[in-house]
Amino acid sequence: MSLTLGGGPLSGQAPGDVNYTIDGPAHKLYFHDFPRRVRAELGGVTVLDSERGRLLDETGLLPALYVPMEDLRTDLLEPTDHKTHCPFKGDAAYWTVRAGGRVAENAVWAYPEPLPGAAYLKGYAAVYFGAMDTWYDEDEEIHGHLRDPYHRVDARRARRHVTVTGTVDGQAVTLAETDRPTVVSETGLPNRLYIPAEDVRTDLLERSSTVTVCPYKGTSEYWSLRGGPADVAWSYPRPLEDAAKLAGHLCFLHDDVAVEERR
Q1: Closest Cα to residue 51, out of 31, 71, 69, 32?
Q2: Domain 29-141 part of CATH 2.30.30.240
């Protein structure tokens, strides 16, 4: 993600404070090895199993995993009439996957005759992440999408005075106040301040039905204000290892909530 989005060197808005220029088209492709075994299952059947995967970083897009066609269960694939054209890669062909009593239409694509600038894609195919039931990075299940090796999440405990205010039943109230936040710096995003639950007025919050998945931090739960706006805060009850420090913390971000900090 850091290469293609958020001001990365292959994004549409590359950083300006550099002493170099990158020659070539505005839309860039970068094909590089993914270092671990990846598997994908549909209906309990392994459709993809590869230790030869490669990531395609493409300007403005999340990286896509491509694997040699031989690393797919081609006996489970049915060619379809669906076609798409990419001006940078060429004409894509598609396959439907049938496995374990499940059907994933047009779930696999490849460029049988890629354009000269993307000739390295010949013989490789990709699978839509959401089309499969389960993905594994080595033996660990993947949530959200495959992790980008150029994306980082750094969680650091800090000494900052942080106050969060909001409106409940028409009254301005302090929702949280702490001197011990955890600062999270994530590639392509502004810093977020996570506050220990003990320093939050959790009696003013209630769980909402919103759930999101981050492949770097884990599955989040959202919190709404009682008598106020929805989804003003979120937390990671069981964060992944890169975000382990966020257990027992909440982060606030909403137009109707003010987060102020003083160092």
Answers
A1: 71
A2: no
